[in-house]
Protein backbone atom coordinates (compact mmCIF):
# COMPACT_ATOMS: atom_id res chain seq x y z
CA UNK A 1 0.00 0.00 0.00
CA UNK A 2 1.32 3.44 -0.87
CA UNK A 3 1.22 5.83 2.06
CA UNK A 4 -1.03 8.67 0.96
CA UNK A 5 -0.70 12.04 2.69
CA UNK A 6 -4.44 11.84 3.45
CA UNK A 7 -4.64 10.62 7.08
CA UNK A 8 -8.28 9.59 6.68
CA UNK A 9 -7.27 6.91 4.21
CA UNK A 10 -4.57 5.39 6.38
CA UNK A 11 -5.56 6.11 9.98
CA UNK A 12 -7.51 2.91 10.70
CA UNK A 13 -5.05 0.41 9.29
CA UNK A 14 -1.98 2.23 10.61
CA UNK A 15 -3.49 2.61 14.07
CA UNK A 16 -4.04 -1.13 14.32
CA UNK A 17 -0.66 -2.11 12.89
CA UNK A 18 1.47 0.52 14.60
CA UNK A 19 -0.20 0.08 17.98
CA UNK A 20 0.64 -3.62 17.96
CA UNK A 21 4.19 -3.00 16.76
CA UNK A 22 4.82 -0.37 19.42
CA UNK A 23 3.54 -2.66 22.15
CA UNK A 24 5.59 -5.62 20.90
CA UNK A 25 8.77 -3.57 20.59
CA UNK A 26 8.48 -2.10 24.08
CA UNK A 27 7.68 -5.52 25.54
CA UNK A 28 10.98 -6.71 24.02
CA UNK A 29 12.85 -3.73 25.50
CA UNK A 30 13.21 -1.96 22.15
CA UNK A 31 12.24 1.67 21.64
CA UNK A 32 10.26 1.86 18.38
CA UNK A 33 11.09 4.68 15.98
CA UNK A 34 8.54 5.76 13.41
CA UNK A 35 9.48 5.76 9.72
CA UNK A 36 10.50 9.07 8.16
CA UNK A 37 8.21 11.45 6.34
CA UNK A 38 9.89 11.69 2.95
CA UNK A 39 8.01 14.60 1.38
CA UNK A 40 9.60 18.06 1.59
CA UNK A 41 6.81 20.02 3.31
CA UNK A 42 7.35 20.68 7.00
CA UNK A 43 3.60 20.95 7.70
CA UNK A 44 3.04 17.40 6.48
CA UNK A 45 5.96 16.16 8.56
CA UNK A 46 4.45 17.81 11.65
CA UNK A 47 1.01 16.29 10.97
CA UNK A 48 2.59 12.88 10.52
CA UNK A 49 4.69 13.21 13.66
CA UNK A 50 1.69 14.37 15.71
CA UNK A 51 -0.26 11.33 14.51
CA UNK A 52 2.69 9.08 15.38
CA UNK A 53 2.91 10.58 18.85
CA UNK A 54 -0.81 9.91 19.42
CA UNK A 55 -0.15 6.29 18.46
CA UNK A 56 2.55 6.07 21.13
CA UNK A 57 5.79 6.73 19.27
CA UNK A 58 8.30 8.88 21.13
CA UNK A 59 10.57 9.51 18.14
CA UNK A 60 10.62 9.56 14.36
CA UNK A 61 13.49 9.15 11.96
CA UNK A 62 13.92 11.85 9.37
CA UNK A 63 15.63 12.29 6.06
CA UNK A 64 15.31 16.05 5.69
CA UNK A 65 17.25 18.26 8.11
CA UNK A 66 14.65 20.99 7.57
CA UNK A 67 12.18 18.84 9.53
CA UNK A 68 14.38 18.43 12.63
CA UNK A 69 13.31 21.50 14.62
CA UNK A 70 9.61 20.97 13.92
CA UNK A 71 9.72 17.25 14.78
CA UNK A 72 11.63 17.92 18.00
CA UNK A 73 8.86 20.35 18.96
CA UNK A 74 6.20 17.68 18.32
CA UNK A 75 7.93 15.01 20.41
CA UNK A 76 9.13 17.25 23.27
CA UNK A 77 6.65 17.17 26.16
CA UNK A 78 5.07 20.51 27.07
CA UNK A 79 5.32 22.02 30.55
CA UNK A 80 1.70 20.98 31.19
CA UNK A 81 2.43 17.38 30.16
CA UNK A 82 5.49 17.26 32.43
CA UNK A 83 3.47 18.68 35.34
CA UNK A 84 0.76 16.05 34.80
CA UNK A 85 3.31 13.23 34.73
CA UNK A 86 4.93 14.54 37.91
CA UNK A 87 1.53 14.62 39.62
CA UNK A 88 0.86 11.04 38.53
CA UNK A 89 4.23 9.76 39.76
CA UNK A 90 4.03 11.65 43.06
CA UNK A 91 0.41 10.62 43.66
CA UNK A 92 1.13 6.98 42.94
CA UNK A 93 4.24 7.00 45.15
CA UNK A 94 2.20 8.53 47.99
CA UNK A 95 -0.52 5.90 47.59
CA UNK A 96 2.06 3.11 47.65
CA UNK A 97 3.57 4.49 50.87
CA UNK A 98 0.08 4.22 52.40
CA UNK A 99 -0.14 0.59 51.21
CA UNK A 100 -2.58 1.30 48.37
CA UNK A 101 -1.90 -0.36 45.00
CA UNK A 102 -3.36 2.41 42.85
CA UNK A 103 -4.12 6.12 43.10
CA UNK A 104 -6.91 8.36 41.91
CA UNK A 105 -5.48 11.49 40.31
CA UNK A 106 -7.67 14.12 38.67
CA UNK A 107 -10.57 11.64 38.69
CA UNK A 108 -8.64 8.86 36.95
CA UNK A 109 -7.39 5.64 38.52
CA UNK A 110 -3.65 5.29 38.03
CA UNK A 111 -2.20 1.80 38.20
CA UNK A 112 1.27 0.32 37.72
CA UNK A 113 1.51 0.50 33.87
CA UNK A 114 0.61 4.21 33.78
CA UNK A 115 2.92 4.91 36.70
CA UNK A 116 5.80 3.14 34.96
CA UNK A 117 5.21 5.17 31.80
CA UNK A 118 5.52 8.36 33.84
CA UNK A 119 8.47 7.16 35.88
CA UNK A 120 10.45 6.39 32.72
From TrEMBL:
<dbReference type="InterPro" id="IPR015813">
    <property type="entry name" value="Pyrv/PenolPyrv_kinase-like_dom"/>
</dbReference>
<dbReference type="InterPro" id="IPR040442">
    <property type="entry name" value="Pyrv_kinase-like_dom_sf"/>
</dbReference>
<protein>
    <recommendedName>
        <fullName>HpcH/HpaI aldolase/citrate lyase family protein</fullName>
    </recommendedName>
</protein>
Amino acid sequence: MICAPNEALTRSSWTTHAGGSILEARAAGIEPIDAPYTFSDVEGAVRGAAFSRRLGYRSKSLVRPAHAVALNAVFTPSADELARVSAIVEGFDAARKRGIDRAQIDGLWIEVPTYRNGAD
